[in-house]
TrEMBL record:
Originating organism: Variovorax boronicumulans
Domain Acyl-CoA thioesterase-like N-terminal HotDog, residue spans: 32-112
Name of the molecule in the record: Thioesterase family protein
Domain Acyl-CoA thioesterase-like C-terminal: 136-263
Pfam entry (one): 4HBT_3C
InterPro entries: ACOT8-like_C, Acyl-CoA_hotdog, HotDog_dom_sf, TesB_ACOT8-like_N
């Protein structure tokens, strides 16, 4: 089931978060590219997915959608999580987890969970399937400078399957969070998907990042099935409009093929 945590490969290095009772303390490995005190969205999204799985695993529902709203920058302050039940129907259940720092919500994950069932076999079900990609072992490592964009990103294994990171145009990359997520615990496949999807606008660029930066205000992930394993591919495309806004969209894969898609709303900011 989508909300269940599956055993993963043993992670290496310092954890992204350390548990402290019911709180979580971000480590240096959670820091993003924005400032020395601002957490990477991939890190916080994965933490909320972990909470979702722990809370919902026994209910037999499939995760159909994850929506993240980044209310304000997340800092190095200790984190507490708050659960809200929004809907509990026979076919659909909607829940939310808020990430609180200093008593204020900085990020919310809203999850839609649907009743588990069996899809009828349809001969043409994969007629419009997304492109296939070589496994991550055959991907191209990114330049060392790119891998050091942030302390968090330095703990992510990246292999390019198409295109080049930090260059304009569509691109596809395999990603894997190699560090433990909390204490010695590895990220689950669903947490790996959330972590990878948050990087969609960093994989595909509208313009060279030296000329045009961006802020991602949200992230929505739709899933067709439960992801498997720890490597996730994001086949990404970033598009900008004339008024400084746009979005990045990505098709999500694991080693078994297409898993879902993601989209992130962007605010572009000129540099230099």
């Amino acid at each position: 089931m989508s909300v269940q945590v599956q055993p993963m490969t043993t992670p290496i290095g310092d954890p992204v978060f350390v548990s402290d009772g019911e709180r979580f303390v971000p480590t240096e490995a959670a820091i993003g590219p924005w400032s020395a005190d601002a957490l990477q969205g991939s890190a916080t999204a994965a933490l909320l997915v972990r909470a979702l799985q722990a809370h919902e695993a026994s209910r037999g529902r499939e995760v159909a959608r994850l929506s993240f709203d980044f209310w304000r920058p997340a800092s190095r302050a200790p984190i507490t999580l708050e659960f809200t039940l929004l809907r509990d129907g026979a076919k659909a259940r909607t829940v939310a987890f808020d990430m609180l720092q200093d008593g204020k919500s900085v990020l919310r994950c809203t999850a839609l969970l649907l009743r588990s069932g069996q899809t009828p076999a349809l001969p043409a079900a994969d007629a419009f399937a997304a492109a296939t990609f070589a496994p991550p072992e055959e991907g191209v490592p990114i330049p060392v400078a790119a891998s050091r964009m942030s302390p968090f990103f330095a703990g992510v294994d990246v292999r390019m399957a198409r295109g080049q990171i930090l260059e304009p145009g569509p691109a596809a990359a395999w990603l894997r969070l190699g560090r433990p997520l909390v204490d010695a615990e590895a990220a689950s496949p669903l947490a790996q998907v959330a972590s990878a999807a948050d990087l969609v606008a960093g994989i595909s660029q509208w313009a060279h990042p030296a000329r045009l930066g961006f802020v991602n205000a949200d992230l929505t992930i739709n899933l067709r099935r439960a992801p498997r394993g720890d490597w996730m591919l994001v086949d990404a495309l970033t598009l900008a409009g004339p008024m400084g806004t746009g979005y990045a969209v990505g098709q999500l894969h694991d080693r078994g093929g297409p898993v879902g898609q993601c989209v992130s709303s962007l605010l572009f900011e000129a540099r230099g």
